Amino acid sequence: MADLPVYTDADPSLAELLATHPHLSTDPLCGLMLEGVALNAIADALGTPCWVIGANTLRQRLKRMQTAMTDAGLDVRIHYAVKANDHLSVLSIIGQEGYGADIVSGGELARTQKAGIPAQRVVFSGVGKSDAELEHAIGLGIGQINVESAEELEIISAIATRLGKQARITLRVNPDVDAETHAKITTGLADNKFGIPFANAAALYARAFTLPGLRPVGFATHIGSQILSTAPYHAAYARIADLVRSVRASGLAVEVVDCGGGLGISYRNEVEGQPEALAGAMRAELGDLGLRLSIEPGRWPIGPAGVLLSSVILRKEEGLPSPFLVLDAAMNDLVRPSMYEAWHGILPLAPQDFSQPVAPIHVVGPVCESGDTFARDRLLPPLGRASRIAILDTGAYGTVMSSNYNSRPLASEVLVENGQWTVIRHRQTLEEMWQDETLPAPPTGKA
């Protein structure tokens, strides 16, 4: 597991951030643009904070992933990881483009069905699927359940038998491989909660063939998120390949290997994970086994497609060694910097700000915690009260992790598509925050 990042090199400049985000551009009159739409125009109409997603960026990145697999000669199905961004508009695009979905809850399953993704293209992952969730999934006939434990295997068998159904299952195997990512998002080490220990997988797979209500089809693995090197993929897939050969030698059929997801993006100046390299790892380790493969990308296709717009409430600097830029967005909107010490690029919206000199400043939100910090000593132009900025690469694990902490309403959301923008979630009102809360009836008297 990687230690917390300590950067010794200079942060990317505003120009460098623009160069690595081709869906963003600047206009001398309108300022920062996303897919040709002026972000200032959206902020003028809706206020801030406001999330903006570029539909064509999402489509292009998914297409690149599929092309990489096809060019490698692989039969690969893409199941988008719903946990990255579960908005119905996003899921609708996924379904329209012919992709499937990877879910981890009954709520996510319901969202896929509402968005029109066929149940047969849905894969159910996760260590703690409830009986009710499994009953619904099996009843719908979803494409695959990734079984995370011996105990869960027995539960699924019992539920499917009671329903008179046959559940199509894979065993999620923990290969004990270090994904070389943040400790909180690694999932393939032996002491992580995920998956079946590698040493137990072959015997449990054989057990699955003896249980009623099950159709075992293969194995799954997922080693973590924000993975930038292919070495962990090679190591994990090599272990799975050995497992496939072993169980086949014992006479058991293996049709499918679910290769997981986790391909990383460039938040700062990292070399982004390459779908072509991932396809190469899959081909090298699994390509000669006659398997149908699948992947579960989430962050890689949707992360760079999104930005969070925010306005400066005030610039706090009198008597301080370093100034603070206080935004109207906060950790309740985007929790990644607070939770993962994550670095996100920040660009101004106004066109004139791109030609101004830069100086270090701390960028923070208004929530009553010191952890409500987006950046420290970030080189930015002299932004002041009412200036606007865009926090980059927030399409994944942004809105889905938002909350009402400090009784702050959820921000509005916008989808940009073909030069137009549409509100896909209105800004939550104060009354909507407590509309489902009730007050107990006042006591009628003393006992």
UniProtKB/TrEMBL annotation:
Its EC number(s): 4.1.1.20
Q: Where are the catalytic residues?
A: C368 (proton donor)
What residues bind pyridoxal 5'-phosphate, as annotated? G262, E296, P297, G298, R299, Y397
Q: Look up the signal peptide feature and give its range.
A: none
UniProt entry keywords in alphabetical sequence: Amino-acid biosynthesis, Decarboxylase, Lyase, Lysine biosynthesis, Pyridoxal phosphate
Q: Which molecular function terms from Gene Ontology are attached?
A: diaminopimelate decarboxylase activity; pyridoxal phosphate binding
Record-linked Pfam families? Orn_Arg_deC_N
Q: Which cofactor does it need?
A: pyridoxal 5'-phosphate
Per its UniProt entry, which superkingdom is the organism in? Answer: Bacteria
Q: Which GO terms describe its biological process?
A: lysine biosynthetic process via diaminopimelate
Q: Which pathway, per its entry? A: Amino-acid biosynthesis; L-lysine biosynthesis via DAP pathway; L-lysine from DL-2,6-diaminopimelate: step 1/1
Assembly and binders: Homodimer.
Q: Which family does it belong to?
A: Belongs to the Orn/Lys/Arg decarboxylase class-II family. LysA subfamily.
Instruction: Identify this protein by name.
Output: Diaminopimelate decarboxylase
